[in-house]
Amino acid sequence: MELLHSLAEGLSSQDAITLVLLALIDSTSMGTLVLPLVLLLFTSSGGRAGARSVAVRVAGYLVAIGFFYWLLGLVLLSGVDLALQPLGAFFGSRPGAVLLLAAGIGLTVLSWWMDPKEVRKRGGDPDAATERWITRAERAVRSWRGLVALAVAAGVAEVATMLPYLAAIGGLAQSGLPYRASGLALAVYCVVMILPALLLAVARFALGGGIDRPVARIRDWAVCTTPTTLAWVIGIVGVVIIVRVAPTVLGG
């Protein structure tokens, strides 16, 4: 109860809403949405029992990736707490602001370079990475060990590009919450992050193959939009950084 009280006291309603929105953005990533949807539709035999078995495995996968991100977040939160004061002072200065401005410009350029249209112009295949993950998922679904390994691999591969998650950790570090309360908030964040796919897994467990068609539509949409969404998220973060630090650079 004391922990919940600390969380309620230290986290404003605006901060809580921001964390939920960031978590929902993260819920659309490759690891938290695309792969679970792909895994849910792998079984075509076994009837209702087969559908339930896969739904349970997908739920286990989601718990594994959520737990991975929570543990990683705790580690990062500790590091941010230690580095926040000196880094905050540095980035508040003009040289630090110039560095942040360069990072913002770099992210904006990177988002343009990652855009699927630009990838195709360069002769690349923007869906290649997605197809490789789907192939790995086909192998992983056969065993619990494979699913846990897939969850960890997806988490490691995506953490650098899950900018909303990193922003949430930075926000918690600056909120002044006790470490344990921040850890609880981070746990809630991870639950919200896996919740959409988890609800679909529960629905497939309850309804069997009856929801395969809508799940397939959501999967196809997620597979098609993931590269574009990632580029947009990186670009938006870059623009936000530019807008926030430009007055410091220009005014200095």
Automatic annotation (TrEMBL):
The keyword Translocase does not apply. Keywords: Membrane, Transmembrane, Transmembrane helix. It comes from the Bacteria. The chain crosses the membrane at residues 20-42, 54-77, 97-114, 146-166, 186-207, 228-246. This is GAP family protein.
